[in-house]
Specification:
The structure holds 2 protein chains of 2 kinds.
Chain A: E1 17-20, E2 25-32, H1 36-44, H2 46-49, E3 64-67, E4 74-78, E5 84-93, E6 97-102, E7 110-119, E8 122-130, H3 134-140, H4 155-164
Chain B: H1 6-16, H2 19-30, E1 33-34, H3 35-41, H4 46-58, E2 62-67, E3 70-75, H5 77-116
Antiparallel strand pairs in B: 1-3, 2-3
Amino acid sequence: MDARRGSELFAMKNITKVERKSDREVVVTRSFDAPARLVFEAWSKPELFVRWWVPKSMGMTLRSCEMDVRTGGSYRLEFGDGMDFFGRYLEVTPPSRIVWTNEEGGENDSVTTVTLTETDGKTLLVVSELYPSKEALDADGGGAADAMHETFGQLDELLVELASKS
Amino acid sequence: MVQYTSAHLDASFSALSDSTRRGVLEQLGREEASITDLADRFHMTLTGMRKHVAVLEQAGLVVTEKVGRVRTCRIGARRLEEVAAWIDRYHQLWDARFGELDQVIEELKRKEKSDGRKTRK
């Protein structure tokens, strides 16, 4: 079938791209080989969302997840140990747009905007995280991803991984 | 908390957006190399490789040193640490998420395909 060997070229698979658009905004882009309605479904149905939002590599377990995915609705993700993530949906427009607040950060609250654009049956996903300040952005680094900090390996290893994407 | 300089990060991410340059970084992560070595390895002209190295150098990802006629390249560690820490947080998290999201979506696709024969919503 398709080439999925470890050392395949980047171009062969859908790349996750992270860009810092400004002092306050980080944008993640990724394509998916599916129509937007299916990608949207995976983002908006809690039972599907919990299956991928907390990847195994994070070493964390989601204790509960409540999501009322509609404009004005709210959500709450609980990891235990007092690590909760919560906020409100500012806009939900199936199957193209979800905007929510991240309110666990107090003054560092950010707003996440997910945009889905379908072309020829593929969907380009853009996730923008907009922070109130540069400091808030620097301090965050992807929310729960802080938990991964200790697992940072050697610089060389990371580079090899980035380059080979194995 | 390390303070990241956004201009540096912009340059770094832009430098990392090219597969040859990522390959060069990977290579230099193993051992330092001259421009000539790199050009050979990546089947490029010296001029082409010089340009790639210049981009990486401007981004602080690579440092070069000219000794005699040979310009030796190696990883620019300090800046890389900034970028690596930052990338780790964002990129690793999102990439891992999306890897698992792919599987969920594949499942939805299969389901829709089998349901689709009966009815469309």
